[in-house]
Design a protein that fits this description.
The protein is mostly helical and 206 residues long. Helix 3 packs parallel to helix 6, helix 5 runs parallel beside helix 7 and helix 6 runs antiparallel to helix 7. It is elongated.
């Protein structure tokens, strides 16, 4: 039995290597490695910038449970659409939505910079509504793409090597998500500009 298991393992990876030689598979791997570049800065720097501009960490954490609930609801709603013959159509729909959410978050970041410009400032409900909507929009688009991606992986995986094939695709997809984020974080400081404002001179009392 041990010899059969060992032979099965070797045969599985041999078949996987043959799959990797296929042109369409190589093209799909190239897509997985590059399709998240447009979202890298949003994913890597948004929260850091909110904190830098004065948004309290406690306030950001306060909204976390709502986003967790959203991450549960979106797969349930989207699941019936991704089970069809073209799950990647949902993935492609998520791409412009995530780009739009990045623009939305940028505008909210500008609003945060203005709202927290003065020490001790407390923006009103309008700011927190924008913050919640923009962050929820981004999380919804991200969940949409993830569910569609996993559904496609499940459909194309050969049942004979299904687990190994899905693990390979997930590993490549995770790598495609992480390297742009790491690069964005590395370039964040060199590409950021900072201005210093002189404090108003103190009045001398006579």
């Amino acid at each position: 039995e041990e010899e059969e298991e060992e032979a099965g393992l070797v045969e599985t990876y041999r078949q996987l290597w043959k799959v990797l030689q296929l042109g369409p598979v190589q093209q799909f791997i190239a897509v997985l490695l590059t399709c998240k570049i447009g979202f890298a800065v949003t994913d890597a720097a948004t929260t850091l910038k909110f904190v830098e501009y004065g948004v309290p960490k406690e306030s950001i954490a306060y909204f976390a449970p709502a986003f967790v609930g959203l991450g549960v609801v979106v797969p349930v709603v989207v699941g019936k659409f991704t089970n069809g013959p073209r799950p990647l159509s949902i993935f492609l729909l998520g791409v412009p939505l995530r780009l739009a959410s990045g623009l939305f978050l940028y505008l909210v970041l500008r609003a945060a910079k203005a709202a927290f410009a003065e020490p001790g400032a407390e923006p009103g409900l309008w700011f927190w509504s924008l913050f919640l909507l923009s962050t929820a929009f981004n999380n919804m688009a991200s969940s949409l793409m993830f569910v569609a991606q996993m559904s496609f992986f499940a459909q194309v995986s050969d049942p004979k090597i299904g687990g190994t094939y899905m693990t390979l695709l997930n590993t490549i997809a995770n790598l495609g998500s992480k390297w742009p984020t790491s690069l964005a974080l590395a370039l964040l400081d060199p590409l950021s500009t900072k201005t210093c404002r002189a404090a108003s001179p103190m009045r001398t009392q006579h």
